[in-house]
Write a structure and sequence with these properties.
The chain has 161 residues and is mainly alpha-helical. The chain is built from 5 helices and no strands. It is elongated. Residues 1-24 form the signal peptide.
Length: 161
């Protein structure tokens, strides 16, 4: 059950580790300065997509631990809240980057939409976990899994560039 979770040290460690990785990845995605070239812009895309994927995976891990009853509610809340904050920070930073040419507008639109999905999905999961709403938590976890798959596709496309 999502609402009533108890955990041993290994589950708490897993949630803490995932949250720490999300924070580190988000910090890596917040590279200062404008992207003056298409190549530079695509580095921002890759870093931001990686940070968003880390935050989303933190959420899906927390949801799985909650469903299996392997973590305490406060630990899950901390992990999901942190991941949501990270995703929103990455989204704001990425949105402030102007594509240097019209050729990058499509990737900007795609990643901006996925960033919104990540933040919204993590917010939905956080609220559902706090309310003990198992059905909504499952739906949010499924939506986050879909977002993760789309972020992986962005990263694969960037790797092929």
């Amino acid at each position: 059950m999502f609402a009533k979770s108890a955990a041993g040290p290994s589950a708490r460690l897993a949630v803490g580790l995932a949250a720490g990785l999300a924070v580190a990845a988000a910090a890596a995605g917040c590279v200062p300065g404008p992207a003056l070239t298409a190549e530079g812009y695509h580095r921002h895309v890759e870093q931001s997509a990686t940070a968003l994927l880390s935050a989303v995976r933190t959420g899906t891990l927390a949801a799985r631990l909650a469903e299996e009853g392997r973590a305490f509610g406060p630990a899950l809340d901390t992990a999901v809240s942190g991941a949501e904050d990270d995703a929103r920070s990455v989204a704001d930073t990425f949105a402030s980057r102007q594509p240097p040419t019209p050729g990058e507008d499509a990737v900007r639109d795609r990643l901006t939409g996925l960033a919104d999905n990540a933040g919204d999905g993590l917010g939905d999961l956080r609220i559902a976990l706090r309310r003990g709403d198992d059905a909504t938590a499952r739906q949010a976890a499924g939506d986050l899994a879909d977002t993760a798959q789309s972020l992986e596709a962005v990263l694969a496309a960037e790797a092929r560039r």
